[in-house]
Amino acid sequence: CAGLRRLLRGLSFSAKYYSKHNPPQTMYPYSKIGPEKCHILDCSKSTCTHRTAPPGNILPCRLFSCKKGTKVPSKRKQNTSIVTSDLLHKNLLKSERKNWNNISPTYKAMTKRIKEKLEELHNMYIFNSGSPRMRFGENVYFEENGCIFLAKADDGEGNAEILFSVEDLGFSDAFIQRVRISPDQTYMAISLKSENSEEATCIIMKFGNHPVVEKVIPSVFSFEWAANDVLYYTTQKNLKCQNVFMATFTYQKHTKLVYTEQDARFFVDLYCTKDRRFLTINCNSKTTSEVWLVDCRHPLESPSLVQARTTGVIYHIEHRKDQLYILTTYGEPAEYKLMKAPVASSGKENWQLVYALENKTKLVDFEMFSDDCIMFLKNAGHLYLNAISFVSHSVQSIKLPTWACEFELESHPEHTTSTCYFQLSSPVHPPKRFAYSFKENNLIEQAVQEVPIITNCHTTRLLAKSKDETLVPITVFHNKNSKELHRRPLLVHVYGAYGIDLNMRFKEEKLMLIEEGWILAYCHVRGGGEQGLSWHRDGCRHNKLKGLHDLRACITHLHQRGFSQPSHTALAAASAGGVLAGALCNTDPALIRAMVLQAPFVDVLNTMMKTHLPLTIEEQEEWGNPLEDEKCMKYIKSYCPYQNIKPQCYPSVFITAYENDERIPLTGILQYVQKLRKAALDHTSRTNKKGNWIPNIILDVQASGSHCDSSWEHSLNE
């Protein structure tokens, strides 16, 4: 144990997203349709966030692109430039920290009051955030407080046995990210991460009278058991997963490289089909997929290709009775549809349609069972459950409660089960557990523990007409008892990138704001995924300005409908949401009085010009390639927040950034804040009017934490 402790202390732990985009994510199957890896992800995923990616080998060397006639700077000049840049970075960081230390005491009394209120709410609802349970036959595995427990299904959890403890290994700063149990329950693979790294460490334990550590694997992203003693895993380096390895643990123990992804735009992850017949190696870019199958009956054999990657075609694989069930965008319209094909002839020419989604419908998640499959859908802001029977060839659709904005599917290791469990929540409604019975075709609310009912919050769904007449959905929450809503403060949320929905999971601070008379509005602008894949396509690359037009229309519509007014309106965004928020701050500063950004992407142009950054190449499918396309460069420059700062009356701005953020370069945020502050002061000095309002522009650089960390502790500090 001491040797293991010394080894692990030298390793970094981490997890993806996580998100795109979250409290520790424990014991869940990968969702097959989660957001793909990106520069900036919606890092708001909670306990059961499921998402993509695996293969890899040695990355090809990538250099800066140079146009014809451009002189390549000498190494001496490059080194001088790097030294100057580093010095500038350090000076800016030092200046901002000094500024923060001077300003933060001003908010001490307010901070104390808010903290006490949030802790009170957190303690009231904490019992709802328990981690999912994984049942294998009579055994139930679960994680709590950094420990993995084993209990008998009939005995209850009071007699649970501790199998693994993070604290016993001496890692107070690490938490359990993911757990996989081998089919015969002989081995357990666990990944650990810390707040300050993007890379995780995988520990393989062998059960017995005294569980022992069999292997420690650094820099692991995803892993799955292909057989009782055969583990496949992907390694992560510089935010990329491009290598897949196979490790065996009995007889001839060995590790072997089985797949390497050569295209820098693709990210690789692993998934096991629900019936555990195949392990899938999933290669995904932002727009294209390729899947390889490992036969779990013969896990040592080479993977076989399902369908070679075709530009613009995304697909994910499940299996049932010698048929591959394929969730794909293949065919028209280019939205998700369920198709099937024989395992022996899996090419897309043999794909047969099983079910197609309606127009403007978002496929949120998909789960396969022995005779049925479940689709969770979002249409016009409402959540639906569709149950597709493979026996009766029927489709049952159930509209979920109108207050529900988010759902979280629970783990169902046994695919023969007749009941599907999931949780529903909203920003102001704590999670409630529901069960859907395939046999009875009904929805049952599970009253595990009495949840205080939110009776004084009203949910309203609106449509705002954008510049091109497109109707943009808005979800609004406010206190039913609030009078004169036009005088109430309004907090507007926006994201609009990567086809990812706005995070609308329950958060204590949202409920606190409702209780204090605030209005909360969520603008589902183009670029996000709220209305399907076409909604994303209409707001990315050369359509990015449509998202800005949508945001402007939403805020204007809210004010026209009597929800607050510009002088009482604040705008909140995180990560890539900072692009649209920062752009609106430049084009329509009079629409808002304040803006709150968390790890924002505000320097799109300069970031996309730097090909040495780990995610720039794969991000080109979202933002374009300004190095090779002059029109693209001009277009990005037209909306990039940093590029369009000018002397004018800006709203107050509060930004949280992370010193060790590998996704959003801190230098870009430092320079953005400096330029914004100068422009605001220039405007004030030029107009020189009495009573001129000078905005507060504040940056808090966190020394710890990772990109948009949303653990309870970090959320409370924020």
UniProtKB/TrEMBL annotation:
GO molecular function, one term: serine-type endopeptidase activity
Compartments where found: Cytoplasm, Cytosol
Pfam families: Peptidase_S9, Peptidase_S9_N
Assigned keywords, A-Z: Cytoplasm, Hydrolase, Protease, Serine protease
Gene Ontology process terms (BP): proteolysis
Domain (Peptidase S9 prolyl oligopeptidase catalytic) ranges: 506-687
Record-listed E.C. numbers: 3.4.21.-
Chief localisation class: cytoplasm
Keyword Transit peptide: no
Family: Belongs to the peptidase S9A family.
The protein's role, per its UniProt record: Serine peptidase whose precise substrate specificity remains unclear. Does not cleave peptides after a arginine or lysine residue. Regulates trans-Golgi network morphology and sorting by regulating the membrane binding of the AP-1 complex. May play a role in the regulation of synaptic vesicle exocytosis.
Protein name listed in UniProt: Prolyl endopeptidase
Source species taxonomy: Eukaryota, Metazoa, Chordata, Craniata, Vertebrata
